[in-house]
Amino acid sequence: MPADPASATLPTPLSAPAASGSGSAAQPQDLRHLPGSPGLRRTQLALFGAGLATFLLLYSTQALLPDLSANLHLTPGQASWTVSAASIGLAVAVIPVSALSERFGRTRIMTMAVFAAVAIALVLPFTGDLGTLTALRALQGVALAGLPATAMAFLAEEVHPSALPSAMGLYVAGNSIGGMSGRLLSGVVAGAYGWRAGLAAVAVASLLCAVAFRVLIPRARCFRPGPVNPRALWHTVTGHVTNPLLGRLFALGLLFMTVFGAVYTVLGYRLVAAPFDLPQALASSIFVVYLVGTVASAASARIGARLGRRGALYAAVATTSAGLLLTLPESLPLTLLGLVLITAGFFTGHCVASAAVGRTATHGRAQASALYLAAYYIGNSLGGAVGASAYHAEGWSGTVAVALTAMLLATGVTAWGTVAAHRAVTARA
Hints:
Blueprint lengths: L2 E2 L2 E3 L28 H21 L6 H8 L3 H4 L1 H24 L1 H18 L6 H15 L3 H11 L5 H30 L1 H22 L13 H12 L2 H29 L7 H6 L6 H35 L5 H29 L4 H30 L1 H33 L1
Antiparallel strand pairs: 1-2
């Protein structure tokens, strides 16, 4: 689920559900879609549409926050809850919903999830107060929880291993493009016609993606339903949470996403205010910088190979922190350069941490990935809410202080890992 968050990368997909009481065993290779086959092309296009819809909807209000504040008389902190509520809903629901897919099937859960989220999106333009809008966004996040981990499990089961990297790459591209285009589409339309029109445009675009997904997705050939054992699932989840290395990786996902959530939630407010005074549509176009994440995600494996996991994490923290400091002067070119570095650093750190989750978990890997996602989206909610409140109280420097604090904590977590690794080596010597 690389991401975002909007992610350009999500945690590494794992083919078989773990010993968590959830279901599918290893699948026969000859039933999986081979490279170049019509079934693979349909699968790729269908899940590209699903990823596009997911992130179109998840961040649909982020570019609209200044407009929401002006029209509904909200502070930045209040308006930011329209973003944070969806992330919280997804974080809370991702583990139980992904477990349900073991019993009721990946395709059924994904279909229900995307159409439920679209149905809520079609209602959002008609809301008139923050409470209703926030509640509906939280429900939308719960609905969207049925897509990320389930889509990855579907790919791992239905696609031949030789075709899996390219299939996952296209799914990730849908996530990245959805995260960017949702912000762009809503912001540009809102600049001309208001925030309600911006939300309506995203809803219609997402409906088209949902229909394309349902028409294109092939029938599952390898899925075998199994019972969901809540006690075994709980045992697996608690085991992951108490694993020191996995705990550090979950914390890093949360902390990096805190920075990303804070910066991208508040950025619109800063750009439409003095001294920049950009129009809404132009301010929304800044989200094109999000594409830097695609490049950084692709480069993260090379960086990790060269510097090691912890070295790559230190580099990601340093890059993100340097970018944050560059945004402090009231200079648009420096702010844009800083945003490029923040985005590159975030995606590098996120990719390194999320990939390490898959390698570290020796069992229950699907649940480990879901826990990482939960921490990741909690970080997005935390960053958006706290960063917006800090902006309201102290201006942009307050938001930067929140983000730099998160990076300081990420440095501490990584240093803790370095010390633990050194002690382990010494103990074996």
